[in-house]
Amino acid sequence: RESFQQNTFSAACLLVHVLLHALSFQFELPRNRIWTKPMIWREFRVHNALFAIRHLVATALGIWAPDWWLRQPGIGAVTAKVCLVLATCKAADITTEQIGSTDDRTTNSMPYPKKTPETLEKVAKRFYAKSQFAATALAVFGTPSSSFCAILAIEIASFLMTLVRKGIIEARTYHILYAASLFIMFPVLVATLHSGDAVAEAATLRCLFVGALGIDIRIKYGFSKYTAWLVAIPAGYILADTLSMYANMKLFFAWPGMMWSASDTLRGFFQARQQSNAFTAAHEGHEPVSQGTTARSCAAVF
């Protein structure tokens, strides 16, 4: 059952998060990022606010305009979803041009603990990237509750960076907790998919199709994020609703897709860990690691 209702409490829940980001701008932060540890800086703060507001706007539309935004989105609603995502992307790009770096992206260039294997960094970055696509899909097609839940990872990243800055936690703890906040959306999707609510189940299937298409278009084929979302949002919506009329998409698409994505990430982490252990053993003189073995390990991860 959907947690949000059209009442004052729901409005207050959303307003609290709007105020949280608005008030965060009163604190002075360094203009340039710190490259040695994951610490918050100005560009990241603006990006976080933009992406959180995207989810809050989508959640509000899902609560107060459910027929138009959630249950049966028409051409107008799908166009609005595309505009919301692309406008957020554009605002983030403008922010980067003004106060950031166009070469080193916020998440992709996040510092990792010393001695972290390069393969493990690549696996983590791939997981972060896939999670960001899933979050965007949840924002525009998810139920109000699932769209709202995705804000956790966005906001906890800033909080964890602040803790790193104050010396309370280290980079390793940041990455563990941030990854956990992203992975927790997997049980959220499963619960929504099997909630017994036809609207929620249809919304989740649309999210999965849109996210999968976005990842392929952007990561696999290398198109721009604007092209990826311009195609993935309407195409994923049409595919999900059309195929659902002819087959049990929970059985034939949702579960296989989610299990593959989760296992792909976990397999990559385990393989990177094994390679790291092999390099450590070789460095200590226990077992030499040939270049061929290294190449095969990297190929297995990616």
What's the helix and strand layout?
Elements: H1 8-24, H2 42-64, H3 66-71, H4 75-99, H5 118-141, H6 144-149, H7 151-165, H8 171-183, H9 185-193, H10 198-220, H11 225-243, H12 249-283, H13 291-301
Transmembrane segments: 145-164, 176-196, 226-246
Keywords: Membrane, Transmembrane, Transmembrane helix
Protein model, in words:
- This protein has 302 residues and is mainly alpha-helical.
- The protein has one domain (8-267).
- It has helices at 8-24, 42-64, 66-71, 75-99, 118-141, 144-149, 151-165, 171-183, 185-193, 198-220, 225-243, 249-283, 291-301.
- Helix 5 crosses helix 10 (198-220), helix 10 (198-220) packs antiparallel against helix 11 (225-243) and helix 12 packs antiparallel against helix 13 (291-301).
- The longest helix is centred in the last third of the chain and has 35 residues, at 249-283.
- It is globular.
- The chain starts with 7 loop residues before the first helix and ends with a helix.
Task: Name some characteristics of this structure.
single chain; 302 residues; mainly alpha; 13 helices; globular; disordered C terminus; transmembrane helix; transmembrane; membrane
The helix/strand series, from N terminus to C terminus, equals HHHHHHHHHHHHH
Question: What is the count of helical runs?
Answer: 13
Number of separate strands = 0
Mean pLDDT: 87
Question: How would you describe the shape?
Answer: globular
Low-confidence sequence ranges: 287-302
Keywords: Membrane, Transmembrane, Transmembrane helix
